Amino acid sequence: MTDFLAGIPGPVALVAAVALLFAESGLLIGVFLPGSGTVLALGWLAGHGVVEVWVAAVGAFLATASGCQHGYFRGRHDGLLRRHLVKRLGEQRFARLESALDGRAEVTVVVSQCFAVVRTLVPRLAGRCEMTHLRFTICNVPVAAAWATTLVLLGAWSGAAYERVQTVVGLAGLPLLTIAALIALAVWWIRRKRLRQPS
Q: What's the structural domain count of the chain?
């Protein structure tokens, strides 16, 4: 992998990474694209002098943040995501998902930036649940900047351990995502139980 990366010209790598990161966070096809791996690869190239570190970090941040903005506005006007999720989850489960996001939208937007797939879907859901654009931007942009900068620096400092760092970053999200899902499930169950109790 590193031999392949070493052969890519800097401007080509930067443009390709920016396009990929925008698609990963802004288009529905992004659920199949590598976001964290792309930023780490860009950082690795920066660490080897192919591109400037600050250019890589700014490029990755702008691409993923603008992709999330695009996803937010598409969520306001596009029914494709809703039809897809209703088909997968059912109308009642989708309604509960929208209700949960509406109640904890800020936290969901912040946390979603760190995980693949949800980084693509949550901006659209935020737009659907009528989270204001200002609230979404305040929650998303600083985290996108921190996420992009951290992964670029990790990639730049990884050196010969790049493959190992890429694997660890990919696997680190799994237990965190599982914990987040369990917490969300527990909160939903407790709220549901309280609603069923007679007043």
A: 1
